[in-house]
Each structure stands twice: as structure tokens, then as C-alpha cells.
Write a structure and sequence with these properties.
This protein is mainly α.
Length: about 80
């Protein structure tokens, strides 16, 4: 049986100093999914900006990385 935290959720991440490390296959899957989503969002954003011929907007899609990191942090805190 898998470990559960005090709120009854499975533990996917272990707290190490000020960070979280995956300690369950689902933790690794969450990280992989967030990286894949972030890369896809940036690629699609770059494609749309090039399609619209917007000058100087090449770095705009990289702003999508911050919400992806925050989502990962929330999931890690929830499942630790």
C-alpha cells in the first residue's frame, strides 16, 4: 500500500531542504507532463506569433514557463 499524507493524498514528492524531489513514479510523470506542456505551449506560441508577423515578440511565449513552474510547485506541495 502506498504512503499517504495527513490529508489522505498519496505521497509523490519528498521534501528536501527547500525543494521537492519525486519519490514515486507519479511524481516523475507529473514532472514529465509539465515539461512537455511547457515546451508545447512555447512552441505553439512562437508559431502563432510568427504566423501573425508580430515583430519583437519572440520571447512572449516564454512567459508561459512561470505558470507551469507554479503549477508544478502546487502539485508537489499537495502530494508531499
Amino acid at each position: 500500500m502506498s504512503k499517504r499524507n495527513e490529508k489522505g493524498r498519496e505521497i509523490w514528492f519528498a521534501r528536501v531542504l527547500w525543494s521537492y524531489m519525486p519519490c514515486h513514479p507519479m511524481g516523475f510523470l507529473v514532472i514529465f507532463a509539465l515539461v512537455l506542456f511547457g515546451m508545447g505551449a512555447v512552441s505553439v506560441g512562437q508559431w502563432f506569433l510568427r504566423l501573425a508577423s508580430i515583430p519583437g515578440a519572440d520571447s512572449w511565449p516564454f512567459l508561459l514557463i512561470s505558470p507551469t513552474v507554479v503549477a508544478g510547485w502546487i502539485i508537489a506541495e499537495r502530494h508531499s
